[in-house]
């Protein structure tokens, strides 16, 4: 198992290590082995695939879910620890939330647990219509696609969830023409099955390649179902390992596998005679169809999908936050909004993992999850009485995104079950506070001192105020560019100076409002504060978790004012991070899809963001900089207008919340003009429409230019990311509370700037920090019902390759 400081494991790539005397094994050779891999029903009775297909035929539209999870691999050293828990959590969600699951939900689980997980495989959940299980070998996986999922028809939904290792290999020459859009390396991304990269009966067993998966998906999609792929794995190359200074990846090209991965080992070559003939006679005429489907991936192809420990156990980061978001929104969320929320949550838990999407038909990104197979969403939770009349049980817990009382107080607005949310009488609502948090439920206590109404069997509740977690940081010591502990420092005088500096910085961080100092062994920390000696000088710097390079310009000296200034800069970054991660996981009135943030290029065409990210090539000298325009769009009218702001979070940690006018609204607007009542509906509003240019306003807004900052030191700047966040609310708010000036970008990795020698220097370093007015641990609940929602688009400007 690959461990990052005892908290993270990569679902990374493994290189095939087959010996040269092993011959490739075809699927046809392996078909007889299916008799050895009998499908086991939930009751444990052996059943073949053919025996069960007829049992699943019903008239109602169905949901077919294939759940593949591999913690125990046949390949030595490849085991993981959270994949089976991921799969069980997905199954739990489906059985709990699919409407009429006992008649419509058909499950096929292919799992390979560790020996220690054998007693953790049972779930307490409504029974599905049918449930099969098996071993996730390559052959069984292919058969599940072709047989089990092949039953789905128009109107049905298909879900495939894979949790395990990904890998890569080089495609055979017969398929190189399919890679025109890729690099000349002809890299094939793969899913590593339980028996992949091993030999069985003298034959080499490859992984399941991306082109094979595409062929299998097309066969399923041809029958007309709505197909969804959830992939919690990664395809980064070669060997990866974690070192003390953070996560580092080293990539190694596969060795000696070309003859084992030849075209004859591909499933479509083996099973389709026409394809086999074409690939033999004229392979360049072979084309692979892409069946209509939605795919959500744990990360970019060049990133690492990770698993870590959460309060409920060890899970993949992607699957954990995906299910948490689905539970919080009752499944009433589009794929596009779902992934944006998952990406925002994942960024707080780990670094360098950005979930992605792929829509064969772009409009499918706006469909509800699984095509809306969950019961109609209700925005409110349910409260039921307990044995203590002063308390109530809430049907949501940490798995729904609620925060532990140890982080801060969460308040709820409580009202009668027969009241409509939009018509609540503020004089009849009550307040409750989160008292105890469990994974699937919580205990609330009423703040007015009165108990649960004796005449009521249930109440409804919505989140009124919740705390924001602090940014977690750790302190590092470094001498001569090497990480050290105090016991490793031989020079006694230097050791004592480092000890004193560490104690001083620890004292400053004690009980900080925005920062939490943790040990490196803790989970989900984000930044490192370095106390170090470089070329004989005492210095301080801030870095990201997975980097040793300074994030902003380092500081010289370990004096108290200098450390105060460093912590002030870290606080500035923490506030920027809070603004970026600002989201409402429990919307009540404004549902996902009500509004969107649209991006327009210089030709006036709307740009489709990929997973919430747009990539722009930086202009070369003599060329104009790329430009974009932004607008907020209302898609579903509400009874009340929505107040809105577009906030620009710059890569230098500045925050500009003024891209829209302060009174910007969407929806039905009504006001008096000289005694005349004016009514109209504002369906869209452009950024910059309130900024005069050449003496006039342009209602279609203004363009923003994007460029790379100049390189002035040893650290070249090859890419920067600007974030644009749309915030909408049913009540007017002051977005200027989010304003921040910029910080000085680092142009060297360890050298520093002039120290803050006086208290005035330290004070001036904090002048640029404005309090963002966040709901913190001491936040009080609002006095009336309101709701808000956010969505974010990232614009990455990258230097063009020569």
How are the SSEs ordered, and which strands pair?
Layout: E1 9-10, E2 23-24, H1 27-30, E3 39-41, E4 46-47, H2 49-53, E5 63-70, H3 83-97, H4 101-104, E6 105-112, E7 130-134, H5 138-148, E8 157-163, E9 166-170, E10 187-191, E11 198-200, E12 203-205, E13 208-209, H6 210-221, E14 226-232, E15 240-243, E16 246-249, H7 267-271, H8 273-281, E17 294-297, E18 306-310, E19 313-316, H9 317-328, H10 335-349, E20 356-359, E21 381-385, E22 391-394, E23 411-416, E24 430-437, E25 442-446, E26 459-465, E27 471-479, E28 482-484, H11 492-509, E29 515-517, E30 527-534, E31 537-544, E32 555-556, H12 560-581, E33 595-600, E34 606-607, E35 613-617, E36 627-634, E37 642-649, E38 655-656, E39 665-673, E40 676-682, E41 684-686, E42 704-705, E43 719-729, H13 759-765, E44 788-798
Parallel strand pairs: 2-12, 5-6, 5-8, 6-7, 8-14, 14-17, 27-29, 27-30, 35-44
Antiparallel strand pairs: 1-18, 3-4, 3-7, 9-10, 10-13, 11-12, 15-16, 17-20, 18-19, 21-22, 21-26, 22-25, 23-24, 23-26, 24-25, 27-28, 30-31, 31-32, 33-34, 33-36, 36-41, 36-42, 37-38, 37-39, 37-43, 39-40, 43-44
Helix pairs in contact: 3-9, 9-10, 11-12, 12-13
Quick tags:
alpha+beta, Double Stranded RNA Binding Domain, seven-stranded mixed β-sheet, disordered N terminus, 802 residues, Elongation Factor Tu (Ef-tu), domain 3, nine-stranded mixed β-sheet, 13 helices, Rossmann fold
Question: In words, what does this structure look like?
Answer:
It is a single chain. The chain has 802 residues and is of the alpha+beta class. It is built from 13 helices and 44 strands. Helix 3 (83-97) packs parallel to helix 9 (317-328), helix 9 (317-328) packs across helix 10 (335-349) and helix 12 (560-581) runs parallel beside helix 13 (759-765).
